[in-house]
Amino acid sequence: MPSASSHASPQAVALTDGQTRRSRRKGARPGELLAAALDLFVEKGFAATRVEEVAARAGVSKGTLFLYFPSKEELFKAVVRENISGRFAEWNEEFDRFEGSTQDMLRYCLFNWWERLGTTKASGIPKLMMSEAQNFPELASFYQHEVMQPANTLIQRILQRGVARGEFRPMDLRYGAYLVLAPMLFLALWKHSLGTCCDAQAQLDPQSYLTAQLDMLLHGFCAQTSPTH
Amino acid sequence: MPSASSHASPQAVALTDGQTRRSRRKGARPGELLAAALDLFVEKGFAATRVEEVAARAGVSKGTLFLYFPSKEELFKAVVRENISGRFAEWNEEFDRFEGSTQDMLRYCLFNWWERLGTTKASGIPKLMMSEAQNFPELASFYQHEVMQPANTLIQRILQRGVARGEFRPMDLRYGAYLVLAPMLFLALWKHSLGTCCDAQAQLDPQSYLTAQLDMLLHGFCAQTSPTH
Amino acid sequence: MPSASSHASPQAVALTDGQTRRSRRKGARPGELLAAALDLFVEKGFAATRVEEVAARAGVSKGTLFLYFPSKEELFKAVVRENISGRFAEWNEEFDRFEGSTQDMLRYCLFNWWERLGTTKASGIPKLMMSEAQNFPELASFYQHEVMQPANTLIQRILQRGVARGEFRPMDLRYGAYLVLAPMLFLALWKHSLGTCCDAQAQLDPQSYLTAQLDMLLHGFCAQTSPTH
Amino acid sequence: MPSASSHASPQAVALTDGQTRRSRRKGARPGELLAAALDLFVEKGFAATRVEEVAARAGVSKGTLFLYFPSKEELFKAVVRENISGRFAEWNEEFDRFEGSTQDMLRYCLFNWWERLGTTKASGIPKLMMSEAQNFPELASFYQHEVMQPANTLIQRILQRGVARGEFRPMDLRYGAYLVLAPMLFLALWKHSLGTCCDAQAQLDPQSYLTAQLDMLLHGFCAQTSPTH
DNA sequence: CATGAATGAGTGTTCATTCAT
DNA sequence: CATGAATGAACACTCATTCAT
Asked: Of B72, B195, C185, D223, which is the most buried if we count CB atoms within 10 A?
């Protein structure tokens, strides 16, 4: 039963820049941990992130992390839920309330998505999943059900609306949804991988990219629309 | 995966003091190792691949691997360098010789790319790069210059041809190229990550996906083509 | 498991500066904790029992446990001390009053012991002592003096009575007593260790075992009794 | 890739009293590990023994231990096999060759068992199993099948021989075997638990104990053999 | 008195890397 | 050249113990 005095040891204090850790408001714990976890998972990947690092960045000890999240995987799931899954309800409601043309809706969808997620740390999550899917099948399955499916469904609803109102050509909705999703994901992926280390001239401007994307989605490349197969 | 031994990386050569390794039957070593490493890196990712497994699959001992590659990281670099060498010269020539419509050229480009690369192990490399770009910035930059740029340029040339011939509407070529690339990369990424662990119903059929993609690229979603900006 | 609160260990009392805890309904705390601890120590062993579990089973918080017992080790000591208190006075009295043959007395002793202790949680204490004797030498010594010695003495008195009355052959009483004790302890040990996880066919029926044991103790294996040394 | 010079570090050398570890004959590794493991398991119990300690005592690193034994549990099983299970074949053969009376055989069995196992570290294994059975059911089951069963069978064969030759009274062999086993196990258990910390006067002399045990097994306590139920 | 949030040392296991042979 | 035995740092997770409230 050694070192009863090890609490508030010099090291621990050093970690928090000398603040007395005990004095913080209690309610913030899980939130700080989720924020720290998001940062680190995005920065270094799931496997390469050590739970101790997450805890340290949140200003708590390793043990405390496990007080709130039973395992690293559950921590990850909580991060995803906090940042993505939890928002589909809200987005679906926005869809129901939307009154403009479906073109505008699609535009709103793309730009809003980028503004709300793309510009935040959460935009790193798709890359994270891509990287770790093979090695953590349970996480992949979780992401598939809690993120990809709802996203797909939401976009299918938009396309369906466009078709129903005669604004869009008839189409296979399942693949149509991927046509919208693919470039969005590509943008997020790019931002967190190759985008971080390429020349200035090769940078992708999100606004321009999304604008081009939207125009192409709606009208295609062709000068005159006359499908040819 | 052609004649691997001719690509022995500088480091590897340095290790052996420049002896002519070629004269022995053993000269095939590095190539076998690179092939095994590609397989495993693509299957399981960099971190999850154990060097012992690579060595075993190449039929040599762990020690031998380190004889040719000073570290796991260098092995990774060699694998990427080995597998993204110049196929662009050939593809650019094909472009020059192509005589049909630009629509057909784009179709040919997409389906051919999938057939020649997408169905092979090499289709795992983009995922590999995405995942590890942060950890190997030097390689990411290399990939950017040697793969992404040429690919971009090639596609821009196609789009440019279409515009020049009045087949395509005028467009910002740089972003236009990404519109073509994004779904291609998405397909390759999908195949090697979430695609491996999702429900049967969520599977993506490459042919259908590319077909839908092409149709949308050319004609867009809209019922009547009347650009609105 | 009678009135636990009357056995509050010295340490526990010391902790509370001798206040009269008795006057409150909460006085039952240490007893509930000791009972819970006995259960769990017997079930899972010292190391595998978590103090939180003990506290939970006693219906208090982890912190409260440490209010009464300064450490897990002290809790263990208190448990053992609490549960091996003097039943020997009573048993010795029974011996004095017994009027039948010494064979019957031995039979009574074995079966009664099993009924009164073997079928209760207390039967787990010998196993506990065996397992932890090395780690708690002071307790082992205590157990030796307070349990093993009196038990030995009691059984020696029985054997002595048999010899004195001509019912038993002369013998070395000290070792004779172990001959009676060994199988009793073995039964208790078995019940709480290997007996819990072996095939149905390898199970030991206490009644049959004790019967066989008694018969052998009295008459031995040999067909005709003619001691041969 | 730091500290390439960490091999043969001062610490490591210190562990082996300055011998160059590399110079040892290779074949001794598993044997040294098994011996170290037996020592430590017996001294401190399975759970309380750290694999690193085992490795250190054997003069190798933690990693080396896992080179030979895939897990701590397998190490334990190997220890048991090495010291006990592996010997039943030999003992059964001795039984087959034995030509004297069954009384002598039983005597030989008891004293020989003590001499060959009881006086060695291996005598600590039964205590080990008793202590850890609950927490490691797989080990318990292993011990049950590889040790208890064969021992039981061997003793039943001896008793059966005695009965068949008219030397012993008829009996239930299954329980009869336990009558022989119980005191043997008790002796081994005693030696490694309470026996280590009790007064000189309470010590059990194995030879005397076994002698008394044998006499009682054969002839019982009773003055005249006249079974009374 | 009682709580329970917070701590951090401790452990089995993996695996890239080394090096004597 | 090739081997594979040996290494030891690294990591997720547990749990006895503390202490501010």
From this structure: C185
Please list every residue in chain C whose beta carbon sits closer than 8 Å to the beta carbon of residue D198. Answer: 140-141, 144, 148
Residue B229 lies in a domain: no
Residue A168 lies in a domain: yes
Tokens for D225, please give them: 């053999």
Residues A56 and A127 in one domain: no
Does residue D190 sit in the same domain as residue D93? yes
- Same domain? For B103 and B211 the reply is yes
What does the pLDDT average to over C54-77?
94
Query: How large is the average pLDDT for residues B36-44?
Result: 92
Identify whether the C-beta of residue C110 lies closer than 8 Å to the C-beta of residue C213: yes
What's the CA gap between C186 and D190, in Å, rounded? 11
Q: What's the pLDDT tens digit per position in D36-83?
A: 999 999 988 888 899 999 999 999 999 999 999 999 999 999 998 899
Does residue D63 sit in the same domain as residue D110? Answer: no
**C220 with D223: Cβ contact below 8 A:** no
pLDDT bracket for residue C224 (50, 70, 90):
low
Give me the domain span that covers residue D53. Answer: 12-72
Least Cα distance to C42 among C121, C96, C159, C117 occurs for C121
pTM, two decimal places: 0.79
Per-residue pLDDT, averaged over C146-157, amounts to 91
pLDDT in tens, D138-196: 888 888 888 998 999 999 999 999 999 999 989 999 988 998 999 999 999 999 988 88
Whether residues D50 and D143 fall in one domain: no
Say if A204 is an interface residue toward chain B (CB within 8 Å).
Answer: yes
For C155-184, letters b (16+ CB in 10 Å) and e give bbbbbbbbbeeebbbebebbbbbbbbbbbb
Asked whether residue B210 falls in the same domain as residue B113, the answer is yes
For the CA of A1 and the C1' of F18, the distance in angstroms is 12
pLDDT at C226 over 60: no
D85 CB-side CA count, 13 A: 15
Structural domain contains residue D53: yes
Percent of chain D's residues with pLDDT above 90: 49
B197 → closest Cβ in A140, A202, A211 = A140
Report if residue B1 sits inside a domain: no
Nucleotides of E under 7 A from a protein CB: 1-21
DSSP string, C57-70: HHTS-HHHHHHH-S
Query: pLDDT exceeding 70 applies to what percent of chain C?
Result: 82
How many structural domains compose chain D? 2
3-class DSSP string for A106-151? HHHHHHHHHHHHHCCHHHHHHHHHHHHCCCCHHHHHHHHHHHHHHH
